[in-house]
Amino acid sequence: MMSRNKWWVAVVFTGAWWSVSLMAGAQVSVDNSSNSVLIVAEKESSTSVARKKAEAHAETMDEPEFGWDPLDIIGSKHDLSALNVRAGAKAMEGVAYDDYGYACVYCHVPPEVDTKSKEPQQIAGWNRIRSDMRDYTLYSSKTFNSTARIPNEVTLLCLSCHDGTMAVDQVVNTPRAWKSGAKMTLHMKINSGTDLDHCGLCHDGFTAHSLGNKHIGTDMRRNHPVSIRYPGLGAGASDSLQLAFHSPVDDFGFANGVRLFNGFVECASCHNVHEPDKVKFLRVKPEYLCITCHSY
Ligand code: HEC
Ligand code: HEC
Ligand code: HEC
Ligand code: HEC
Ligand code: HEC
Prior knowledge:
The strands form two sheets. Strands 1-2 form a two-stranded antiparallel sheet. About 15% of the residues lie in helices and about 5% in strands. The chain has about 300 residues and is mostly helical. The radius of gyration is 23 Å and the shape is globular. It has a domain at about 1-45. The protein binds heme C (5 copies).
């Protein structure tokens, strides 16, 4: 299978193969399968391959609401492909996580997979399984009866990495091109724990940046309420609570991009994981975020 821009050079020679690697920008891979012949190939860089796969995946999907570019996620903290390379010195090579080749499949079901087939523990609509956590301790509204012990799907997606109980590479369907032979030995979780199970092994703030505060945990009461119906839509909320919230455009949310999911507030109401240029992936600047919904 040859794609448009791909070209291969096979050079057969006996000595000093490394001199070829000095050719401008050449990425050299050496095939040692035959003792007498070395094949040096210039390939597309892994990042351009990852982009093409992501573009192909995006074409199978609906246009996003409020016009953002899903491909912006490439190279961001939510792009779990090629982390090794981006970390420099291949810091995470051979450990930590499986590299499925491109960003989207860590969350979205690969396009080649029949969406009708489902794993029992799959989070509906996403390429991830529910975290081992059966129950989260959720915020309960004193004035509004919408407490749920199990968050909605799009929040379960975030928690499948951010509650720190599951490996970040634990997906339901691996992409077709990925070979299970490329499986890594360790599968780590977003957790500041320092044993072999946790990204915190290196991400302790000394060896690499700390990811302890990216670990949300399973007690949601410390965080903003999620999987809670938005009172500003009326229906079911007391008058005083309705007054405390602005009216959205519709069930999808607000014109500035703050989103509702079927009328519910979820993690992804405030964060858009595809927009890394925004601080903490927030949909709007922090100073406008709260007042989008809260009127006082
Ligand atoms: C970290 C998880 C995550 C990754 C990785 C991810 N997405 Fe998303 N994606 C989401 C969430 C959550 C939503 C729903 C939020 C929204 O629509 O604002 C979404 C929504 C979308 C949408 C809007 C349409 C729809 O079906 O809801 C498109 C298009 C999309 N993603 C494309 C991509 C592409 C292409 C990639 C890879 C380049 C990608 N995503 C990677 C989490 C992710
Ligand atoms: C596939 C695993 C995965 C999923 C699913 C996921 N994240 Fe993340 N998230 C990460 C990783 C890895 C980081 C980077 C941690 C680091 O490097 O410090 C991160 C970082 C973040 C950050 C911090 C960004 C920053 O600049 O410091 C936010 C905010 C965030 N995620 C929100 C979300 C939300 C909201 C969702 C659901 C819509 C989500 N994540 C789903 C893996 C995931
Ligand atoms: C063997 C040590 C090691 C382990 C284990 C490790 N990392 Fe890293 N990681 C590094 C180093 C070193 C860097 C580069 C320095 C930095 O960014 O702080 C890095 C950088 C990163 C970056 C930033 C790269 C970028 O392009 O922005 C992310 C995101 C990341 N690691 C996520 C993870 C996640 C998620 C895990 C667990 C699944 C993990 N790391 C496990 C060593 C490690
Ligand atoms: C009402 C809006 C809102 C909701 C809902 C929300 N967040 Fe956030 N989140 C924020 C804001 C604002 C920040 C930045 C806080 C700061 O920098 O001090 C943040 C920060 C984060 C961070 C980064 C923490 C850090 O210090 O780097 C992560 C990870 C995160 N959120 C994940 C989530 C997850 C997962 C959910 C759902 C369980 C969620 N958020 C729900 C507004 C929200
Ligand atoms: C997407 C809409 C939305 C956004 C944005 C939002 N909130 Fe909320 N907030 C809600 C809803 C809905 C509730 C739950 C109301 C209820 O039923 O009690 C809530 C509840 C709260 C509560 C708990 C109130 C109580 O009675 O205990 C606090 C505190 C809060 N929000 C602060 C913030 C802050 C700070 C921000 C900005 C970082 C923010 N909110 C952004 C919708 C939002």
